[in-house]
Fold:
Amino acid sequence: MNLLDGKIVSQAVKDRLKTQTAERLLQGKKAPHLAAILIGNNGASETYVASKVKSCAEVGFTSTLIRLEESISEQDLLFKLTELNEDFDVDGILVQLPLPKHISEQKVIETILPSKDVDGFHPESVGRMVQGLPAFYPATPYGILLMLEHYKIETKGKHAVVIGRSNIVGRPISIMLNKNEYPGNCTVTVCHSHTHNLKGICLQADIIIAALGKPEFLKGDMVKEGAVIVDVGITRVPDASKKSGFAIKGDVDFNEVAPKSSYITPVPGGVGPMTIAALMMNTFKACAAKD
Ligand code: NAD
Structure:
């Protein structure tokens, strides 16, 4: 078993971006600028946004964190987004999900200009990605591809099983792994909550992407010897032994699955840091596209 270490790979990606950003500045060009909107006081969202802002500082990007009250109206949020769309200095815009119930996620996603859509959620970004055109890839699937690439994991002709079909992880990674380029050319099976015989399907997988949000769901007897396992899940489960009062669990039972796998991501320290590295890559690209 080998670890797919998201901390190491994300650091390598960020080191490259730091060098490229310094080169931009030497050439008299602007630093990439990410604007992040955080609404309300969700603990997990606070942590994610703080990591994104910290990563911007690490690589030399400018960042603007905009904190808004939980009670902000949808109209006011959309107005704020329009302002950011029109601000030439801002290259990438992200709105941390989930949103308060009274705000339409779809309207928010569609209001962000596709050229600043560094989360890759806008229908135009998704459509371009599906058609194989240059596009911002959604950060988590993109981070997974960067990790597979870093470890030179063979994907051509492999059977990849994706568990989960959300717009932000399962569905896009299934399309990306199926593309006619490396990392890709997999035969992909997408599983979801109505899939029959999930265990039988997983046992045929060379690569499993677990993205269903159910702690330690994937057990040792669901995985064939030598499979590559990517655990996207992040769930906070109560744990009195931790200072925070919770532990972070992935969707894979690591202790059972790791001995059977050839490569496996840990949680934490796997896909999470790669998501942020991918976001940084998208922000750099958004900025460079304006040169
Ligand atoms: P989601 O709730 O939107 O989607 C879950 C999917 O899993 C659904 O398509 C559902 O059909 C499927 N599913 C649920 N139960 C199932 C079952 N028993 N068998 C098969 N399929 C089942 O979740 P999401 O937004 O895609 O997130 C999934 C997990 O990944 C969560 O734990 C989330 O916190 C985590 N996540 C991590 C990162 C990261 O950076 N590491 C990023 C995004 C999401």
Q: What stands out?
A: The first strand starts at residue 2 and ends at 3. Residues 140, 163-166, 168-170, 191-193, 195, 198, 211-214, 232-235, 271-272, 275 surround nicotinamide-adenine-dinucleotide (CB under 6 Å).
